Amino acid sequence: MVNIFLLIAIGVMLSSNAAQADVVEPDMRDPKLPPIKSISIRENAARSPAASGSEEQCGGFVLTIGEVKDYLLAAREVTQDDYLHMLDWSPCYASGDVLFENGMTGVWGIQQLRAGSLSLSSGRKIYLYCPHCRARSFEPRDRRLPTNAMLPKDVEAFVSRREGCAHFRGEIPEPNQRARLREVKREIRRLCTGMDKQLVRLKKKYAPTPQVMTTLNEFESVGELEIADGSDRAGDQQPDN
Questions:
Q1: DSSP character for 126?
Q2: Which residues are 39's β-sheet partners?
């Protein structure tokens, strides 16, 4: 009996180690930012319109200026492709402005699952990730959004982005809603770009896994050309100012 329990314990430990080994992080590098002079917060506990949960789901995601500074100092730069296709998307975010010692400014955004972005006045756009950043409002690293709890991490991220893509593609603001038109256009490009290629890659990767393929086969091609045309039509209804 003791041997049976010992074998069970060893099996659990091996399974846990295997699960941790399956966590693949994107390639990260130092963004080489200048020293920070000041930070301001525009939005806290903000929720993406693409989210399907309750309005209150992001109420607990509140960052302090100190936490934002710690994030920007510790975060590493990732490629846009890895940002879109490897990192988990969260509907909860905070955003604001940063001023650097050299006079350069930027607009930052940080999601609850530790992905972020920084748009600099120089024209440079940086995609960020800080897997080891600690703030009271960040989700634990081993916690998943309640989309498909048993799916692999990259498939979960795909499903979350695809749902957001579908939401914005189905929304057509009135021509006089200039700010909303710009937001819809921006979100379509952010969430929908590359969806078809990613779906092909995931289907090839998980072809031997029927449970995962059942979920992936629910999705059809979104049509990259249609995304671009729809986005441009939304923008053409009213010129951006």
A1: E
A2: 98
